[in-house]
Amino acid sequence: MCDVSFQVGHEQKIIKAHKLILATRSSVFHTMFEGSVPETDNIVISDVDADSFNLFLQWIYSDNLQVSSENVRQMLYISEKYMFYNGKDVCENFLKNSVSTSDSVVALQTSIEFHLMDLQRASLKYIQQYPSKCLDNAKGLNIDKECMDLILKSEEFNWTETELCKFALKWAKKQMQVIEKGTIRTK
User: Fold this and answer.
1) Element (H, E) at 38
2) What is the C-alpha to C-alpha distance for residues 108 and 72, in angstroms, rounded to an integer?
3) Reported confidence tier of residue 187, pLDDT bands at 50, 70, 90
4) Is residue 71 part of a domain?
């Protein structure tokens, strides 16, 4: 009894849903379906992958989401895009709880991307206190340039300048490998 279809992601996977449920949970969906020029069917959503969109729909239907460090950025993006503020709050709380773990770099990266200043300060503070735990891993080497700039400009780092330089060199080497493979990450 679904009455709307979405073509999602690069593969244009068809995902069916119910307009009424979506419209009651999101003002963007409400406008999309009930506005002056309503969408009818086969709505193309190319900026979100099918798995994330399915997870988002499950979230809308059930008000339950298992946020992880792997999906939190995508869920924040979708929540903002569709003005699903409850979803944004869940993601922000997850990130706040992950600040005091090795996922603090994920929290810092996400805080920059989504302009969450309190989260940014808390993440950076934790990284400054426990740099080895936070940066000496794959997640630390995968931060973007803006995140790296914040770390390098930090004056209260619990690392020697030599340790910080060694990390910066490893990070730069990783970035060069990414560029050479042609998989440059964009914001």
Assistant:
1) none
2) 12
3) very low
4) no
What letter does residue 95 receive in the DSSP assignment? H
Segments forming the whole domain that contains residue 164? 99-187
Contacts of 18-22 with C-beta under 8 Å, sequence gap 24+, read 21/60, 21/61, 22/57, 22/60
Q: For the chain, what is the domain count? A: 1
CB 134, CB 122: distance < 8 Å = no
**Is residue 13 a part of any domain in this protein?**
no
Span 140-155, pLDDT tens digits: 888 999 999 998 888 8
Q: Is residue 21 domain-resident? A: no
pTM for the structure as a whole = 0.75
Q: Spell out the residues 6+ positions from residue 141 whose beta carbon is closer than 8 angstroms to its own.
A: 135, 170, 171, 174
**Mean pLDDT, range 10-20, rounded to an integer:** 93
148 inside domain: yes
